[in-house]
Specification:
The chain has about 575 residues and is an alpha/beta fold. It is built from 26 helices and eight strands. Among the domains are: about 260 residues, no CATH class; about 110 residues, no CATH class. Helices cover about 60% and strands about 5% of the residues. The radius of gyration is 29 Å and the shape is globular. The N and C termini lie far apart (about 80 Å). About 35% of the residues are buried.
Amino acid sequence: MKAAVFAARAREQLSFEGLFLLILLATIALRFYSLDLKLFHHDEAIHAWFSYRLLTEGIYTYDPMYHGPFLYYMTAGIFSLLGDSDLVGRLLPALLGTLLVPLLYPIYKLGYLDKKQTLVAALFLAVSPNMVYFSRFLRNDIFIAFFTMVLLVALLYYFERHKMRYALIAGAAIGLGMTAKENMPIIILIFGVYLLYLIWTRKVRLPTYWVRDLVLGALVAVGIMAILYSSLGAHPDVLMDGWIRAIEHWTSMHQAQRLGGPPYFYILLFILYEVPILILAVVGALQFVDIPGIVSRWKERRARREGAPEVVAVSVDHGEVPEEEEPPEVEAPPVEKAQGWKDRLREVFSRGEGFRPVDRQKEFARFAIFWMLLSLAVYAYIGEKVPWLILHQLLPMIFVAVYAMTTKKAVIAVVASIFLVAMTFHVAFTPADINEPIVQVQNSEDLREVFAKIDAADKVAVATDSYWPLPWYYRGDRASKLAYYSQKVSEPTIYGGDFDIVITHDGDTYPTLEGYVKETSRLNYWFSYEENKERLLEYYFLRDGKMGSRNLEVFSRVPAGTTA
């Protein structure tokens, strides 16, 4: 009796909703636990500093080098509510990264994913190293991933329910995404092209008032963009030339390839961090294409062309069809009159007449494969190769990976997720410098010792242009003790300033300073391909290669009465 009760309770706890909730709780824990474990990345410090200036001085103007205004206004708002700190600065990325998982549920409710697909997709989103790492990271790309999911859900519901509110939500997602980062148009273009395909093939119904809804959704998107890009009306000129400057900037970045890499750069990152998802996505795409079916149909067509006897299909359930039994005559379907493109357009926009019902899961898989392949191609082409752009390729890849999710495939996915969990803990929860390409140029934990020296000093000279993240960590009242020279200055300037600490870059420094003792500390670091290219396979398993770094030299004044 007790065993039966236990089994019943276990089945209840392991229901679809129960498992989905457990995955969501794990997602929350991985995003929010010890959110300030690592120092801010170089870019995070700049983003937080601009947000702080917006809050305290009201200063902000759109600059395409630092992406759209959404991050700065939202982060400044959170700072105003909860205070300015590393942890608070990362709250919004963590929240939006978490919300990717519950956004799967409405897709499941519409029937585009089944229960197994939904659970495995949720698991992948929850424990993916890149999804976790960049959800704990004050950059714009996790915002784009979130708005992409909102846009996807809104469009699915709009074409299912034909309600104007879903068009407005889609417009808001586009507008907010466009104010977050300049790669949102790539998402809009991919979604738009596939939507046109669905409309042209009559796989979706156009609602009666679709023109009205399209106009209203566009107005919402444009309105959000106008408000934020104009800095709430303070800089209306940005609306005229901001988009031109953005195109010019990113075209120049693509051509310069400041942070370049080969076209297969992101495939290497997938192999490093997301290899189970990559493999399952390849399997899912092959299952969708149905290679065995293509081969068998090709053989049948070839046999017919060569005049070979047609093979009689045998049904396991009903037995062989007797050879002497002739098939019943079937009336040939009427031949449709060939349509011109004008006739087809009239049919397409005739409020849904002739709508073709589709297999939702199969059509969603077709869209995910289209989305994934175009994303891989676009980011392979773009010259600027940075690790956070992998998110926009990983999101559709997860949907492809869960296609045709049988119980066996689900078990394989869960077991393979052990690799994802291990990598997540390595890259996101190691309280030290890690030799991984995912960090790009991360500020070193060694800086904490430099901070301790600065905290103990009264006057500090920063005689180098390599000073980030100091403006963020020494802001407000604490900023007064630092004097920024942005280059090495003459020794008399140092001695005359009566500085307790002098900070320089080791590439342009002083051999010695009289009365000071020198120590070298790592400022930031990155994975060095050149230092590891002879042992890449060994590095893959050990992750113990050499790092590139930029270093600071810290000169501390010797107390009077002692010798250096």
